[in-house]
Amino acid sequence: MLANMNGLIRCFAATAIALTLTACSGVHRSVVVQPAGGHGSTVTPAPSAPGGSYQVARGDTLYSIAFRNSVDFRDLAHWNGIAAPYTIWPGQVLRLSPPGGSAGSTHAVAAAATPRPVTTAAPAASAHPSTPAKAAAPMFENTTETVASKPASTAVGAASTAATSPASAASSTTVVPVAGVSTLSPASLPPPVVPAVSAAVPAGATRASGGVSWRWPADGGLGKRFQSGDAIPGIEVYGKSGDPIRAAADGVVVYSGNGLVGYGELVIIKHNDSFLSAYGHNRKRLVKEGQRVSAGQQIAEMGSTGASRDELQFQIRKDGNPVDPLGYLPSR
C-alpha cells in the first residue's frame, strides 16, 4: 500500500511540473509575437499650419493675396515678416494665418493714423435734390453741372402742365347732357394725380463713412445685392460695354490685373489703412499699380470678363472683410 501511495505522489508531481512548463512556455510566446516597433503606429504627422499657405505667382501682390483670402494685408505682412512697401517674389511661400494659429487681427489702428479724406466741392445740383437726372447723362461725371443744375421747378412744372392739360381741354368743351346719365361739371372733377418725382443722386454726390468720402463707381441699375455668404461678395451694377468705371474714393491702385479667378479684369484701390475697394469684370483697365487716383476718376471700362453680362462687380473691404457697399455709398 505504501508503494501505491508513492506512485500516486510521483504521478501528481509529474503532472504539476508539466502544467508549470506549459504555462511558462505560453508567456514566452506572447512576448515574442508582439511586433517590434509596434508603438510607432501611434505617431501622427505634425499638423499643417492653420489656414494653410500660398505660393506667390507672377502678377500677385500682397494686397491681391490678402483680398483673395479675406485677410487684412497688414496681418498677412506681419505673419510673414514683410515690411512696407510689401515686396514679394514669384515662388515665395506665404503663411495665411498667425504662427500660433490664433485667430483675430494682430494690428492696432489708431484714429490719428487714418488719412484725412480729400473733400471736393459739391456740384451746384446738390441744392436741388429733387431734380431728376437725364437718363443719358452719367450720374457721377464732374462735367455735368449744366445738366444737373436745371431748376427743379422747370421739370416739375412741365410734368404738371402735361398732366393737367386734359383737364384744361375739358373745360373748353361743351357738355351735352345724355338722358339717364348724370354729368359732372369740370369744376367738380378731382385734381389730377401728378406722379412723384424721386430724388436723383446729384452728380458727384458723396457720403462720408469710415474716414472716406464715397461715391458711386458707375451709372446703371443696381442688380445683385450684397450677401455675406457669397463666394464673391459685393454688388453688381448693370450697364453696357465701355461704360466708365470710376474710383469710388481717393486712393492708390494696389492691384491691376486678371489673376483672381471669378473677377476678370480687376482693379483694387487702397483708400486708407482700413478700406479697400475692388472693381471687377472690366473690359479694359486704365490704371497701373502704384498710381494715385482721385474720386470720380475713370479707372476702367465696363465689360463682361469673368461674367455672363456687362456689369461692374463692386466690393468694399474693411480690415480685409467684405462689407455691404450700400452702407457706405450715397443713397440712390
UniProtKB/TrEMBL annotation:
Any idea where the LysM domain is? 52-96
For this UniProt record, give its keywords in alphabetical order, as a comma-separated list.
Answer: Signal
User: Into which family does the record put it?
Assistant: Belongs to the E.coli NlpD/Haemophilus LppB family.
Q: What is this protein called?
A: LysM peptidoglycan-binding domain-containing protein
Q: Which InterPro entries match?
A: Cell_wall_metabolism_enzyme, Dup_hybrid_motif, LysM, LysM_dom_sf, M23ase_b-sheet_dom
Highest rank taxon of the organism: Bacteria
Q: Which portions of this protein are annotated as coiled-coil regions?
A: none
One cellular component (GO) term of this entry: cell outer membrane
PROSITE patterns in the record, alphabetically?
A: LYSM
| UniProt region (Disordered), positions on chain | 112-136
A GO term, aspect molecular function: metalloendopeptidase activity
SMART domains in alphabetical order = LysM (SM00257)
Q: Name its species.
A: Dyella tabacisoli
What start and end residues bound the annotated signal peptide? Answer: 1-25
Looking up PANTHER family in the UniProt record yields: MUREIN HYDROLASE ACTIVATOR NLPD, PEPTIDASE-RELATED
A Pfam family it matches: Peptidase_M23
Q: Does the keyword Signal apply?
A: yes
